[in-house]
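Re: that chain you flagged

S.,

Sorry for the slow reply, it's been a week of failed gels. I finally had a moment to sit down with the sequence you sent. For the record, here it is as I used it:
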Amino acid sequence: MNKDHLARTAKALVTGGRGLLAADESGGTIAKRFAAVGVGSTEETRRDYRELLFRSRDALKRYISGVILFDETIRQSASDGTALVKLIESAGAIPGIKVDLGARPLPFFPGETITEGLDGLQDRLVSYYGLRARFAKWRAVIDINRQTGVPTKYAVDANAQALARYAALCQNANLTPIVEPEVLMDGDHDIELCAEVTEFVLHRVFAALYEARVFLEGMVLKPNMVIAGKKSPHQASPERVAEATLRVLRRSVPVAVPGVAFLSGGQSDVEATANLDAINHIGGPWCLTFSYGRALQASALKSWAGRAENVKSAQAAFTHRAQMNALAQRGEWTQKQEQMVA
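Prediction finished late last night. Pasting the C-alpha cells below so you have them in one place:
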C-alpha cells in the first residue's frame, strides 16, 4: 500500500471546486433511463452516450475531478478508436471503477439487502489498476421502513463489514476506495428518522473501517444527504437539510477523512445542487462535494435522445449541470443562475 498515492488521489477527487461524475450505471439501470427517452440499450448506444459525456472537455477539465465507470465502459473505445479512459485522462479527470456486483436480498431479513462482489475482488482490482483506474466504488443500500423495523443492526453491520473489506482490498491494490453507504430516500420517513438512521449507519461503517485498518486519509466517503423520504408530506428546506446533514457528519465521520462526496439519491437536478450549496454555506472540516449520476446526466440524456445531431446540445446541458454543482461545491450557487440558462 502506497499511502502517499492513495492520499493524493483522495484529495484530488474532492478539492479544486470539482466533483465526481457517476457514469457507472448497470446494464439494467441504463436500459431504463434510455427507454425513458426512446433509446434502445446496446453496446454501441451505451458507448456513444458515454463518449459524448467524456468528450465534454470543458466540463471534465473545469468541474469534474473523477469519473466512476462500469466494467463494460472501462474496456471500451470511442468511435475513433481512442480508449474512453484516455478521453477522461486527457481532460484532466481521474478514471475510477464500480467494483460491487449489486445488492441482493439478505436471507431471513425481509426488505434488506447485502451487497455482493468480494469473491475474487483482489484480482479484479489488480486488473482494473492495469486498465488505468485509480479509485474504486462500492455501494451498500440501507432502506428505512418504520413499520417493519428496517434497518436492523445485523443488516447494517453486514454491509459495514463488506464495505470495510472492500476498502482494505482497494488500498492493498493502491486504488483509493470510495465508501458508499446509502440510506435510501424512497419511503415516507421524516428528516429526523433519516438523521437517526444515517448516524447509526456511519458509526457502524467507521467502526468496521477502523477494525479493518483502513487508511482513512486515503479514502472518500460517499453518503446520502440527510433528507426526508420522497413520500413524506414534510419536505425540508435546503437550509434544514444542510444543518441535519452536517450535524450527523460531525458526530460520525473522523476529520482524517479528506472529503465527502454526496450522492444525489433520487433528488431532482436543481434540488441536489441547492442542498449541496446550502451544505457548503455552513461547511465542515472536510471537503464537501458531489458524486452525482442521474442529477448530472438527466438533462443531457433527454437532450441527446440517441441522435447524433443532438450531441452538442447534450454536451452543453451536461456542462451546465456540472458547472452549477461546482458552484455549489464552493457555496456560490444561486437559483438565479439556473433561471438565466432556462
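What I noticed first: The longest helix spans residues 191-211.

Talk soon,
D.
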